[in-house]
Specification:
The chain is α+β, with helices and mostly antiparallel strands. It has helices at 4-12, 21-28, 48-61, 120-128, 146-152, 159-162, 197-201, 236-247, 260-268, 293-302, 318-325, 327-333, 351-365, 394-407, 432-445; strands spanning 17-18, 41-43, 64-68, 91-95, 111-115, 169-176, 181-184, 209-217, 225-232, 251-259, 281-288, 307-314, 340-345, 370-376, 381-387. A hairpin with a 4-residue loop joins strand 6 and strand 7 (181-184). It binds flavin-adenine dinucleotide, D-malate and zinc ion (ZN). This is Putative FAD-linked oxidase.
């Protein structure tokens, strides 16, 4: 019997089966550096048929399979279990890096098909060449893939305008755990025949199927936008400004908040500060609309208590976006231990209390670490990052954050998913019946638990 690498090479070609320890290492640690897994091989198929053949081999031999796109996920879902945690079976990592094809844009139907490994940036540039845009955008756009954003149901900075990734998925092609190919590929906007399987696979974090191709709906960009950075002395001013701008007929394209500590971290790495003085909060607000957008925006800003300063310019205004765009990387560079990165949401009215209580977590616990909070404030989504957390305190910090969030009626995972990082806490977010039903679906679609073991359910 040929070895596993030889059999995989028979499917994808020998250059696309990687087994050298040094090469594997590049695939086996996640973006945050917190999670390192183990695999017997990395396989890089090019086509859906090759993926189906790989998965069929895994099903026949009981081999675990972890799917990886751009490896920018932040909850440890894109790497296999660590050697000690792995089930005692062979494990392969399937990388979609070679599956980068894009179909022609359907300009009238406003949609495009993208292979799973196409980056967000590539999908967006392809759409932009036809006067359209991809509705999901995030700072990892040059690495994050179509398959990855769908598998995590990513949110991002345009979610307030266009909804989450699930809202952009018209159709899907995926290889099931037994090797069959599901192709729900219809550009129809209205199509209610049975269960929403593309919707189910969206957000399934590689646990139900390998997504090979996605049919995305595209959005029409505004003719012009105005971007403001507004210095604030309180969180509530941001949500009041969003409401005021909407009442004036402005369309909110993005609404992102940062704290002084986070902005300082970015500036330590060279970015220019757009507002004159440091402020407790900086709010990046992008709007569009008909008529005098700048004047309407300034009028909205003037009516808000808690505004300390504001600068505005026509979009894309990359300089005004720079501190927000560089936040995640600045945080990753500024911590001595892997960042404890908790992505939570609370009801909008609870945001000010949530910021206060999440800032207080280190002091409350007596743990020496630094909180940096930022996020998609218009969606009630706070990225609660704790830097320099001693390894022994990671669990306590996580528990304390989730206690605050649960108390405020929020979610322990706003947009990054559950992955490995939050699997132990899934019960905080879902009822027993809900989890039973999810497990039933998992068992029905992947009866031998081969797809992404350890992700979602632990
Ligand atoms: P990976 O990291 O490779 O994988 C993520 C998960 O999806 C894993 O569970 C993996 O198994 C699964 N998966 C990947 N491809 C497939 C496939 N083809 N089939 C089945 N399962 C698959 N997220 C947000 O929601 N909003 C943000 O604003 C945001 N900003 C970010 C900014 C930065 C700088 C970084 C580093 C990350 C950010 N993220 C954000 C995290 C986000 O989850 C990822 O960027 C993206 O969604 C993951 O895409 P990926 O291709 O890197 O997937
Ligand atoms: C973001 O909004 O920038 C991300 O979700 C990444 C992060 O949480 O750091
Ligand atoms: Zn985010």
């Amino acid at each position: 019997m040929p070895s596993l690498p030889d059999r995989l090479a028979g499917i994808v070609g020998a250059p696309h089966v990687l087994t050298d320890a040094g090469t594997l290492a590049g695939y086996l640690t996640d973006w945050t550096g917190r999670w390192t897994g183990a695999a017997d091989a990395v396989v890089r198929p090019r086509t859906t048929d090759e993926v189906a053949a790989v998965v069929t081999l895994c099903a026949a031999e009981g081999i675990s399979l972890c799917v990886q796109g751009g490896n920018t996920g932040l909850v440890g879902g894109s790497i296999p279990p660590a050697a000690g945690d792995a089930p005692t079976r062979l494990t392969i990592l399937l990388s979609t890096a070679r599956m980068t094809g894009l179909d022609d844009v359907d300009v009238i139907g406003r949609s495009v098909g993208a292979q799973a490994g196409a980056t967000l940036d590539a999908v967006d540039r392809h759409a932009a060449a036809h006067g359209l845009r991809f509705g999901v955008d995030l700072a990892a756009r040059e690495s994050a893939t179509a398959g990855g954003v769908v598998a995590t149901n990513a949110g991002g900075i345009r979610m307030i305008r266009h909804g989450n990734t699930r809202s952009q998925v018209l159709g899907i092609e995926a290889v099931l755990a037994d090797g069959r190919i599901l192709r729900r590929w219809s550009p129809l906007i209205k199509d209610n025949v049975g269960y929403d399987l593309p919707g189910l696979l969206t957000g399934s974090e590689g646990t139900l199927a390998v997504i090979t191709k996605v049919l995305f709906s595209l959005v029409t960009p505004p003719e012009a936008t105005t971007v403001a950075v507004v210095a604030l002395d309180r969180v509530a001013a941001a949500t009041e400004l969003i409401a005021a701008a909407s009442r004036r007929g402005l369309v909110v394209e993005a609404a992102e908040i940062m704290t002084e500590a986070g902005v300082d971290l970015v500036h330590a790495h060279g970015a220019r500060r757009p507002v004159a003085q440091p402020a407790p909060f900086e709010f990046v607000f992008e709007v569009s609309g008909a008529g005098a957008v700048d004047e309407e925006l300034l009028a909205a800003i003037e009516g808000i208590d808690g505004v300390l300063d504001a600068v505005a310019e026509p979009g894309p205004a990359q300089a005004l976006w720079a501190a927000r765009e560089n936040h995640t990387e600045a945080i990753a560079r500024s911590t001595t231990t892997p960042v404890v990165k908790l992505d939570v949401s609370v009801p909008i009215r609870a945001l000010p209390e949530a910021f206060d209580r999440l800032h207080a977590v280190p002091g409350d616990l007596g743990v020496e670490c630094r909180p940096i909070l930022f996020g998609h404030v218009g969606d009630g989504n706070i990225h609660a990052n704790y830097l320099d957390v001693p390894a022994a305190d990671v669990h306590r910090v996580t528990e304390a954050v989730f206690a605050v969030v649960t108390d405020l009626g929020g979610s322990i995972s706003a947009e990054h998913g559950i992955g490995r990082a939050k699997a132990a806490w899934i019960r905080l977010g879902r009822s027993d019946v809900d989890i039973d039903l999810m497990r039933t679906l998992k068992t029905a679609l992947d009866p031998h638990g081969l797809l992404n073991p350890g992700v979602l359910f632990g």
